[in-house]
Amino acid sequence: MKLVEFPLEDGTTILVEAEQVAQTAAALPDNQALRDALREEIARLWGEAEAAGVTAAAVGDRSVAIGGDVSGSTIITGDRNRVQRG
Questions:
Q1: Which domain covers residue 26, as residue numbers?
Q2: Is 5 helix (H, G, I), strand (E, B) or coil?
Q3: Which of 7, 25, 29, 55 has the most CB within a 10 Å radius?
Q4: Cβ neighbours for 58, distance < 8 A, ≥ 6 positions apart
Q5: Is 20 a domain residue?
Q6: Is residue 23 one of the residues assigned to a domain?
Q7: Residues 43-57 pLDDT 10s
Q8: Would 71 be classed as within a structural domain?
Q9: DSSP reduced 3-state for 19
Q10: Is 72 within a domain?
């Protein structure tokens, strides 16, 4: 579980789960504090990944990580999907 420091309007901060911040930020796009907290967490995680030599990371069910060129490729996530080539 990844925790994010989330600033409250009274100046205090609380720790919340990163996924919860992302979901709440998506539901409340006008909340600048949420957007800032999410942006900071993404930047922090990106820095950790770069320091560890990770160039692509997929997190969650049916995620896709691309570490190179996939031009002209079809990328599919989900269950029981079918692709027909014309």
A1: 3-51
A2: strand
A3: 25
A4: 64, 65
A5: yes
A6: yes
A7: 887 787 778 877 777
A8: no
A9: helix
A10: no
